[in-house]
Amino acid sequence: MSSTRERSQRVDAIVLRHQDWGEADRLLWLFTLEQGKLRAVAKGVRKIHSRKAGHLEPFTRVSLLLAAGRELPIVTQAEAQETHTALRENLVRMGYAAYVVELLDRFTFEEGENSALFRLLSETLKRLTLEVELGLVVRYYEIRLLDLVGFRPQLFNCSQCEEQIIPQEQYFSASSGGVLCPKCGRQGTEVRPVSQSALQLLRHCQRSNYAEARRLHVSSAIDREVEQLMQYYFTYLLERGLNTPDFLRRVKQQNPGSNL
Asked: Are 43 and 24 in contact (CB under 8 A)?
């Protein structure tokens, strides 16, 4: 018979979302350093005197001890490492955080360890807590996530004729997986125009580390252009739209002076 130690595992996890389960439990969706995405049950966490409740909120990075359950692992210990309280105190920051979590959730399955994705999510949540230009934080995250899930867009050569892209107005094709030169773009269907400045931002995020990328000043107009372009690409890849962009858009409209 396996010992308790053998049937339990400690994991470093980020809480993506949760759902009420039964009378007092919660079903958690987690992204862990050791196992990638998984689900677990937190028993009794909705009871008033539960000690685990405050450690299992969305966006929290938490150290968990998971015991083997009949169907799903069971949380037996939880200790928050990074609560990211600021994300729940500011609606704009919370909207961005919900967006990056949803994006990762949609592109991943319960398929095993992916430490690079875990680090990207963890670092992005920290940046959303601390940074001022949140749009740039998210644009960098989007490009890096696409790399890690196998959908890196082609930004330096035409996705059809493979000619080098030169500094001029171009097109972007979701079905071709990247930028099209003017000749191929004008012949294509379901393509989107992309300005030189927007393409520069995408390229900069793709080839730079975050410390280098954050030096770039991005106007609100260019951020909106790239945001719309990314939503077009994600909708094609996922075959459906995301839920959080509409929520984030409404929140930003209600906070026009937030500069976020």
From this structure: yes
Residue 260 C-alpha from the chain's centroid: 17
> What's the CA gap between 231 and 48, in Å, rounded?
40
For residue 4, the SS3 value is coil
CA distances from residue 122 to 9, 134, 232 in whole angstroms, order as listed: 21, 15, 25
pLDDT of 248 above 50: yes
Is there a contact between 184 and 161 (Cβ–Cβ < 8 Å)? yes
Asked if 27 and 48 touch (Cβ cutoff 8 Å), the reply is no
How long a stretch of residues is the chain? Answer: 260
* Interacting residues of 101 by C-beta distance below 8 A, sequence separation 6+: 16, 17, 58, 59, 121
Exposure b/e, 60-97, CB count within 10 A at least 16 = b: bbbebebeeeeeebbbeebebeebbeebeebbbbbbbb
**Domains in the chain and their CATH numbers?**
8-83 (2.40.50.140), 86-254 (1.20.1440.120)
Tokens representing residue 225 in the block? 């252009």
pLDDT tens-digit series, residues 5-63: 457 899 999 999 999 888 889 999 999 999 999 999 999 888 867 777 778 999 999 99
Output the CA torsion 226→213→119→109 (10° steps): 20
For tokens 């992309």, name the residue: 194
Angle at 100 between CA 254 and CA 203, to 5 degrees: 100
Residue 211 pLDDT > 70: yes
In whole angstroms, give the CA distance from residue 126 to residue 253.
24
CA distance 32 to 11: 6
